Amino acid sequence: MSPRPGKRSGVLELAVLGLLQENPMHGYELRKRLSGVLGTFHAISYGSLYPCLKDLEARGLLVEDGEAAASAPLSGKRARIVYRLTAEGKEHFQALIADAGPDTWEDDRFGVRLAFFGRTEASVRLRILEGRRSRLEERLDALRSALARTRERLDGYTLELQQHGLESVEREVRWLDELIASERELPGATGSTTTKTSAAPSGHAATTTKSGAGIHPSAHGV
User: Fold this and answer.
1) Considering the domain boundaries, does residue 139 fall inside one?
2) What percent of the chain has pLDDT over 90?
3) Domain that holds residue 43
4) Which pTM does this prediction carry?
5) Which listed site, 77, 81, 95, 152, has its alpha carbon 20 to 30 Å from 67?
6) Is residue 214 assigned to a domain?
7) Is 62 in a helix, a strand, or coil?
8) 144 and 93 share one domain
9) In what order do the strands lie in the sheet with 25-26?
């Protein structure tokens, strides 16, 4: 059994498998699509993408599509290698998106899991959303406590920065509340798996945007 990848490489692996699940791609196209899924804060270089592809190939999760490469015109130019998932790769991706454990609630993994919610079972989506909200509520408690202790010692700029961070987390909690409410309204949705509710103040609008890969956060990052 292959060792579990690190957090960053695990996020990249999930994104690569998810995109190749749609259709085979060559490296340049895959890198462009990854930038859309992972966002600007997870810029993907060829130096990180190709080792990931080679690792997935070595584990039998994808193959280089020889037929696509052989069909390139005889122009003297090097044919682009096209990557295609194997049956094992598709199975592995399904196992990854069935996971709703604490790792999926973290900042670096939550966004990419959300990108593939369109292919995730409803019960798993709900557990991830509720877990993410619970994690952020813990963060809110810590931020509020720290701000209350240090407010008198902070200069105006640092205080504004701390307040901005607090409000960003509050906005994301409210946004998650809306997503969770929508999930619970779907036919066959399961009940709540957590009991803690958000204490974030109201007054800020929350929005979402959609793409072919799923629902993406819009200006709710922390």
Assistant:
1) yes
2) 51
3) 7-102
4) 0.74
5) 95
6) no
7) strand
8) no
9) 25-26, 82-85, 62-65
